[in-house]
Amino acid sequence: MCVVFQGHCQCSLEKVTISQTQTGKTVENKPEWQVTISNGCVCSQSELKLSCSGFQTVETIDPSVLAKSGGECLINNGEPVPPLSDFSFKYAWDTSFPFNPLSSQPNCS
User: Fold this and answer.
1) CB 82 within 8 A of CB 48
2) CA 21/CA 8 separation, integer angstroms
3) CA triple 15-34-47, angle to 5 deg
4) N or C: which terminus of the chain carries fewer CB neighbours within 10 A?
5) In this predicted model, what pLDDT tens digit does every residue of 24-56 receive, in sequence order?
């Protein structure tokens, strides 16, 4: 999906990247992972959803940060992730989970 603003393609899901690193901590004997979602768009993106079917964690995640519904996870309670910025959360499980962006609503006004 592309939003055209002033004749240029400003935002697409390709501008949302996800990286993960181990924090070095353990929670219930499972390694803790920090997920960083980077919005590489010049516009904020709201209603950002990730694929998360099968996602598990032993660490509590505030539902305003990551809310799982079926195979989708809503980030930041649907609130905008600012342009050219990162949003992070942590979870704990044996292995990292392959999150992928599903959809978002670019705000280019």
Assistant:
1) no
2) 34
3) 45
4) C
5) 999 999 999 999 999 999 999 999 999 999 999
The identity of residue 82, as a single letter, is: P
Residues 76 and 87 sit within 8 Å (Cβ to Cβ) = yes
Q: List beta partners, residue 35.
A: 20, 89
Sequence letter at residue 33: W
CA–CA dist 9, 17 (Å, integer):
17
At 73, the amino acid letter reads: C
pLDDT tens, residue by residue, 73-87: 999 999 999 999 999
Contact (Cβ atoms closer than 8 angstroms) between residue 92 and residue 26:
yes
Token duo for residue 36 = 């960083």
